[in-house]
Amino acid sequence: MYFALTDEQRALAETVRALLADRFDLRAVRAVVDDERGDGHPADLWRAVGEQGWLSVCVPQEHGGLGLGLLDAQVIAREFGAGVVPGPWAATVLAGAAVRRDGSPEQAAAVLGPLGVGELVATVALRGPGGSFGPGGIAVRADAAGRLDGAASGVEYAHVADVIVVAATEPTPPGVDAGGGDAGGGVGLYLLERGGAGVRIERQAGIDGTTRLAALTLSGAPAARLPGSDAAALADLLGRGAVLAAADLVGVARAALTRTVAYDTERVQFGRPVGSFQALAHHLADLHVAVTMAEHAVLYAAHALDENRPDADLAVAVAKSKTNQAAGDATAAMVQYHGGIGYTWEHDTHFFYKRAKRLIAAFGDSRQHLEQVARLTVDTVS
User: Fold this and answer.
1) What's the pLDDT tens digit per position in 76-91?
2) What is the pTM of this model?
3) Could you tell me which residues come within 8 angstroms of residue 261 by beta carbon, excluding any fewer than 6 positions away?
4) Which of 22, 27, 213, 372 suits a disulfide with 317, CB 3.0-4.6 Å?
């Protein structure tokens, strides 16, 4: 079976690429990175993102959205990665996916419409300090009244988010008797207002200046449970987050490789372009193959989640592990093959390298996803 983007999806990619080149190029990115005290959320960019409908890509049509899928969202994520674009687009889209899937009709009506046009910023808080991505890494607890206690770490743009989707452990899910058997994993997703009582947000330092992170501390904070949420809902949300992170990573990797090839085609040493040296040319060719394979892995993982295919979990694990490796290698080569200038703050190479470093750990690092591949393949062999 031949699998590729549709003409409409390729046109979407071209539109995103053109707008970013015209209105938010690397000089604008540098302004955000250099402004360490700023919120990292450029208002003009956010307004343009909302006007273009990129926030509403997965919002149902009944709420004013485009009603498309993760395969379309990853097109945008890839272009944002290629442009190392700052802002809470991915976090907002992911939070919207949770509300769409697991929220009540009232919650969906209150959140998805404003979210889709950029009137509302959202994010997700899914793990505690030092925790892994999954039920075992959650450090927030919910009581029977929906009050939250605990902490979450590395929450993207929590300081500007209007609402936060928080993963919390539950002693017993609402409506389930403690002795009634399967408790659904004892996990729920909760909709939290940033300015509510018992909510403290503190900015966290991070390696990647193209995003902003924060720690979330909750002390009896009132929140509204997404009624359809459970352990399976958390797993779905983590899978979608992994695909968006992987798409961003392949965008970073492809841009890093393209810029490196262009530079080494022009850079001359010993009277020849350095790109003509066999060792370097072979390595860049290997990187091209790796990035291409990672790109296709991301496409299939997004498709598998959209279609609820039985191999979706495996596809996500393969995609994230492949993109982690490809982006790590491509951005490291970018620094090295730009020579001495590639190590300086004044050059743009570090934007790509540091963004890749952050995203490699997001929604599961390579070890976590390779272990998942082993569980779903080797461990199933009798």
Assistant:
1) 999 999 999 999 999 9
2) 0.93
3) 275, 284
4) 372
